[in-house]
Amino acid sequence: MDVDSAARDGNKRVFNRLGAAPDKNQKVCYHWRAGRCNRNPCPFLHRELPPPQSIDGISSKRPYGPANDRSFSGPSMSRRPNPNMKWASNTWGRNHGAGAPGPARVPRKIQDKVCHYWMGGNCTFGDNCKYLHSWFLSDCFTLLTQLEGHQKVISGIALPSGSDKLYSGSKDQSVRVWDCQSGQCAGVINLGGEIGCMISEGPWLFVGIPNAVKAWNIQTASELSLSGPVGQVHALVVGNEMLFAGTQDGNILAWKFDAASNSFQPAASLRGHSLGVVALVVGANRLYSGSIDQTIRVWDLESLQCIQTLTGHTSVVMSVLCWDQFLLSCSLDKTIKVWVATEGGDLEVTYTHTEEHGVLTLCGMHDAQAKPVLLCSNNNNTVHLYDLPSFSERGIIFSKEEVRAIQVGPGGLFFTGDGTGELRVWQWATEPAVVS
Predict the structure, then answer these.
(1) How many CA atoms lie within 13 A of 367 on its CB side?
(2) Quick one: average pLDDT of 100-124?
(3) Shortest CA distance to 140 belongs to which of 49, 254, 58, 52?
(4) What is the DSSP secondary-structure string of 340-382?
(5) Does 133 or 428 have the greater pLDDT score?
(6) Which of 305, 298, 354, 306 is nearest to 330 (CA)?
(7) Number of C-alpha atoms within 13 angstroms, CB side, residue 120?
(8) pLDDT reported for residue 41
């Protein structure tokens, strides 16, 4: 497709300018590792080669991304944070030094900024432009296509089990249904209210709107409306056979599905946050909630009681993510924090990664080599991709407006939805691109 071709050609020019084309033996430049290579072009690689094993001994077979049993739609925690584990804090954020194999680094241009004139289709500099003419900067993934139709920010993306359709929800009050084979819009559902979030669980599609949650069963075509929320529903997650909704008034409502009546029955209301709940994630019998009140609350899924309040952030907690035995959180305070359990069982910060801009959402997945990758959307209209746990950068995605929704798909696919209403489909490369 035209966009895909332009993206790939743009990255080819970036590689050629930097002299990053590898030789036949795939050698890494010794002087570049030491930070003093002045050859342009250089006959050797200006990036590290992928490691032969998974990062720091973490099994590449560990569940990551959407759970294998689809127990919930977000990245999974295979077990509760282990109170006895002795993970060294300096493992996080530790870039691979000279002589040590590491993940492929992001190819750099003079300026890592996309050309705004090119975005608008009217850059007159062409190949001589010092800014990027591409929607992304990486050799690890590629842009497959973009789906247009929404008029406002995309706030949710979902792929229900057993369906060949992709669903996207937007603040334009509509859910669009996309055919995964043709890429065409197969239907539009108007809900009469801004969509704050959307998830899928098995055959169910859940959509958060003001004062309600809409539920559709894709297999039976049944439609339900769950009342109880006050204000906008900002976040949804499924855990312990319950649906949880984070609402504008700071409460978290829970429902259980009653198969006999084919309905969702109110189960509980979790109170504690003083302002709106905008992020939810479930991990091994725990529910984690992020709020505008700058805190994260940890809830026991059996008792539905708050067992800890985390106060490490200094602005809105925008997203929470479970990865292995760790909890990751991001905030408009420009930080991503990694939390781990102490010997007493409480969570504390073991590493803080700082971004240049506020962080809007986190998403985790595996790349084509089964290595864990963190996708981090910032409010400067970029998405940064990092290897975990080193936080070595793998790529950057650019968009016209900030990306609010990221979703992992099958077969190395992932999706991003931005503030203009554009939905982009990406795919990890099976091998890093080699440009001759």
Answers:
(1) 27
(2) 62
(3) 49
(4) EE-TTS-EEEEEEEE-SS-EEEEEEEE-TTS-EEEEEEETTTE
(5) 428
(6) 354
(7) 5
(8) 66
